[in-house]
Amino acid sequence: MPGRSCRGGEVMLLAGEVMLLAIDTCGTIGTIALARREGESVIALIQIELAGKTFAAQLVPRIRELLQEQSATLQNLEAIIVVNGPGSFTGVRIGVSAAKGLAEALQIPVIALSRLVLLAQKGETQAAALDAGRREVYFGRYANGKALESLAALEDLRETAEPIAVCEENLAQDWPAARLIAPPTAAEAIAAALPRLLIQDYDDIAALDGNYVRRTDAELFARPAGGRK
Description:
The chain is of the alpha/beta class. The protein has seven helices and twelve strands. The chain has a five-stranded mixed β-sheet with strand order 5-4-3-6-7, with helices on both faces. Strands 8-9-10 form a three-stranded antiparallel β-sheet. A two-stranded antiparallel sheet has the order 1-2. The radius of gyration is 19 Å and the shape is globular. The termini are far apart. Mean pLDDT is 87; it is low at 1-15, 217-222 and 224-229.
């Protein structure tokens, strides 16, 4: 293939060749993916899973390992795609913090994507839901060019007739209209981010935060400043 050399049967990146990194640590299982961009298309190279509760310790070292396996370095990265929630508060924070840290150090752009959007796209629906615990769901509806994401009670959506993409079996059991699919992955996030990448529609790194939808328990139960103890 033009522009590449081979060594021992492996395809080697040449200097200046660009790659895309995607991070998704929103769920119980995380994924990291690398892809190569060729013009207006991307070619997935590799994706791995990260076990839950290991994200903080494993995310950055595994990113470096994946790059080494592709004979690349951090300097080969053109952009970072991060799935910024909703999902596990801790997981979302870890993924977003890692993406921001790498992007600032390397001076490269970031594209953040909603996990609900990815789920709806994968399920070919205009609505998606993720379990938020406490008999609540993170719910997203994407129709007529509008996007609405909110926290909703399971009971409020039980009678809905529209197809809803879900990736958790308990939600599929609760809703007759639910469309159960596999959870979205980092590799799928790269494909979904391509239209924004092509027009350089990047996120402001300084302002980028997790798409939590619901406030954390610390925020919900914090005492007001100056309040009584």
